Amino acid sequence: MPITVFKPSIRRRDMDAVLSCLVSDQLGPGATLQSFVGDVAKYLGLSGGGAVREYRRAISIVLRALGVGHGARVAVSVLAPSVYRDALVAAECEVVLCDVERDIPVIDPARIEAATTGGIDALVVHTTLGFVPNLAAIAEMGIPFVEDVSHGLGSHTGEKLCGTHGSYTVVGCEPSDVITTGGGAVILGAGRKERATIRSVLDGYTEDVIMPDMNAALGVTQIKEIEKFIARRKEIAGVFSRAVMASRHRVPVQHGEAENVFYAFPVLVESAVPEAQLYARKKDVTTVPAFAGSIYARMLEDADAPSDAGLQTDGETAVVAAPLDPAAFPNARRFFMRCILFPLYPSLGRNDVETIQRVLGTLP
Fold it and tell me: What is the CATH number of domain 1-364?
């Protein structure tokens, strides 16, 4: 059976927790949800917030909490999930797309600085593939921002955990994320004011939007194991990294004292990507393009769409007012064209690790 790229790490205690919730007859939002949100907030050292059933909905809610709306200029990495562009456009914001850093696929502070000449009202900072942006430089800009640590829960700058620098934090809980509840996301505020704002926004929604206890029960056990999950991911990544060193390909490397979390195992392929993927598939190892769901991918789809709207560009920053030229983002383009993801998750067995190790070491 092929080794899948993503697989949630579900253990017996996770199943027992969900079963206990089922037999309690308390399936909707209740005490278990409050406990889960509290545990995630405690782990990050944040004030608290809430959780919803859909990641997409969480993004819309956090943008409302941040107070951005019609005409607000919001900067985001072009390699962030495309759902961010959708949510910002739905909120009638101007989406300011920024290129990523040369070595890691996260928003480049220099590109944000270039965009500030036109005024920036807010930022979205996504720990793409678990990598850590230059959060100190971003925080010094004094612009309100949201951190999304769905890919990078547990990553840190060397001094502080990611998710603790912005006004609000989103923790995705999809099956492919670092922890899972089977779907949805946690939304947290840095302080009491932000926590109260989140709860005020959530009060405007019906119960069917809020994460139910049945899902939260899984999250409670998952967050308790977060450090073990991270350590196991790091251990496996070390094995894979040594294998890639024997090939002509390379792995993106985190800068300085910061430490990323391996959401999956990214490889920058120096040969033809389809050839590398076919080779892996023949060895029963599944791979996927790293950024198929990114804003950049959507740009490629929209590139030929007709539009009479104007377009403002400044180097590697652009405002979404028309289909954009993907070549305007050279670093993102390189990651998009060359980076593929190999399986890496805590539940990978020894035989599977060895199989992937051999494939990485002999990748054409």
Answer: 3.40.640.10
